Amino acid sequence: MLELPTGFLFGAATAAYQIEGAAGTDGRGPSIWDTFSHEPGRVLGGETGDVAVEHYHRFREDVALMAELGLQAYRFSISWSRVQPDGRGPLNQAGVDFYSRLVDELLAAGIEPWPTLYHWDLPQPLEDAGGWPERATAERFADYAGAITSVLGDRVGQWTTLNEPWCSAFLGYGSGVHAPGRQDPAAAVRAGHHLMLGHGMAANLIRSAGHKVGVTINLYDVVPASEREIDLEAARRIDGLQNRFFLDPVLLGSYPEDVIADLADVTDFSHVREGDLAVISTPLDILGVNYYTRHVVTGDPANGDDGHGGAGGEGSPWPGSEHVGFLKGELPLTAMGWEIHADGLTRVLERVAREYPSVPLYVTENGAAFPDEPDADGLVRDPDRIGYLDGHLRACRSAIDAGVPLKGYFCWSLFDNFEWSWGYSRRFGLVYVDYETQTRTPKSSAYWYSDLIRGRVAV
Length: 459
Hints:
Layout: E1 9-13, H1 16-19, H2 32-37, H3 55-69, E2 73-77, H4 80-83, H5 93-108, E3 112-118, H6 124-128, H7 135-152, E4 158-163, H8 165-175, H9 185-208, E5 212-218, E6 221-224, H10 229-252, H11 257-262, H12 276-280, E7 286-290, E8 294-298, E9 325-327, H13 343-355, E10 361-365, H14 383-401, E11 406-412, E12 431-433, E13 440-442, H15 444-453
Parallel strand pairs: 1-2, 1-11, 2-3, 3-4, 4-5, 5-7, 6-8, 7-10, 10-11
Antiparallel strand pairs: 8-9, 12-13
Helix pairs in contact: 3-5, 7-9, 8-9, 13-14, 14-15
C-alpha cells in the first residue's frame, strides 16, 4: 500500500472561463477568450464559454459536491474581467461578491480556497491597448492583484498569481491557437517577460500583506528522440523555451544564456529593464507544477508535428526553434493525443528540487481527457482515468521518497468543461456534466479519488 505523507493536501482544480458561464451577468466585461471564442474558426464547433457549466449560478451545489467527495482544497481562478471589467479602475462589486460568497461557502464546508489571479482571460480593453506584449499590462495586473487580495485576503491566505504563463505567451501570441490569437514571435517573447514581471509585482504586494504566494508553471520532461546531436540540440531548445525560460527568472533571477542566444533573431531582449529580474524573482512560498505528458522531440523537420497544443492554427509556439518536431512514442494516449507517461512527473519534480532553490512544491494540475459517456445505468465508468491518476500519484510518492518537498496534488479537472480551442469535445472532469441539462454525475474516478483522500484505497 502506498501512503502519502500526513498533511499532504488533496484537491481539484478549475478555471473561471471554463466553468462559470454568466458571460454578461452582473457587470462582467469581455475577456480575450470571449472575443476569441466568438470569432469563426477559432474554437472547434464554434463553441464558447458563454454558458459553460453554469458554476456562477450553481456554485453552492458544486461546493456541496466537493464536500461530498472529501476535497480538502479547491483551486479556482478569478475572472479578472468579472471583478474589474476594464482591467483598471474600481472593482465591480457584484463580481467581487460572487467570489466572496464562493470563498465563504468553501470555508463553511471545510475546503481550503486556492484562488489563481490569472488563468488566461485578460480583459479585452487591455488587449486592445496591446495586451501582454506591453509593459503596462504587467502594471495593471499588479493593481488588480492588490485590489482583489485586499478584499478577500481576510479569508484567503494562499494565492497563485499566474497559471501556465507559457500558454498565455506562446499559444496566445505565438501560434495563435489560444486567445488573443496573434502570431508574432517577438510579441510572444515580450508577453512571456511581462507576464512574469506582473507576477513579481503582484507577489511583492501579496507577500507584503502577509499572505503566501506562488505561481504555477506547466513543465514537461523533454526527451530527445535519439542520441543524435540534432535531436539532443532540439531537446535543449525546447526545454529552454518550455521550462527554463520561466523557472530561471522566477527562481534564479536570470534568463538562460542559451535561450537568449536561441532567440537572437527574434528579439534583442531590450524589453527587459534593469531591476525586472529582481522583481520577477521575488521569493515564493510555493511553486505550482502542472504536468500532463512529456515532449519527445527531434531536430529533423521532416518528422513530427509542431507541438502547438491546440485544435488548429498555423503559427508556431516555438520562436527561434520552429524546425523542431514533436513525436508520439509507443505509450497509450489520452483523448488529447498526449502520451501517458507518469515517470516524467517524477523526473520533473526531482529536477526542480535538484537544480533550483528549495521551495515547497504542489502538483497544481494533473489529469487526462477520455471519451466518457454514461452507461445504460447512468453510471460513468472511467477506468483509464483511474489508471492515469493512480500512476501519477505513484510518481508523486516516488518524488517524495527521493527528497522532493512535494506538499499536495490537485486533479484537473473537477468538472468536464469548456476545453479552450477544443470546445466541449474533450472531457477532463472527475464529474461528468451533461451540457444540455447541466446535470452533474460523479465518475468512477471521482469516487476512487474520494476514497483515496479518506484513506480507503491503496494507491
